[in-house]
Q: What sequence folds into this?
């Protein structure tokens, strides 16, 4: 399996596990073992994401096609999720 440095850009990383943490934060684990939390608080606007300000609705995400999907029809590209988590995790990539 390729390590995360060899998979950049992360277009083929799939969400395999996700857990609601609290507020608007979800913990994610990807098929290559990368894991981390994302706080979506500042991203909840517009037709599909705006209704997710209701925490009860926000918590109803599922994993479908390797990414997060909500009952509103909102979803987020798995590569965006991966890049967001990767950005928060210390890396050994050369600078």
A:
């Amino acid at each position: 399996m390729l390590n995360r440095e060899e998979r950049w850009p992360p277009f083929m990383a799939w969400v395999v596990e996700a857990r609601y943490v609290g507020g608007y934060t979800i913990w994610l684990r990807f098929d290559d073992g990368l894991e981390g939390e994302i706080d979506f608080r500042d991203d909840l606007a517009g037709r599909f994401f705006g209704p997710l300000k209701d925490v009860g609705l926000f918590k109803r995400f599922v994993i479908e096609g390797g990414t997060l999907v909500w009952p509103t029809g909102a979803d987020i590209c798995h590569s965006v999720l991966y890049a967001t988590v990767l950005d928060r995790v210390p890396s050994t990539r050369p600078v």
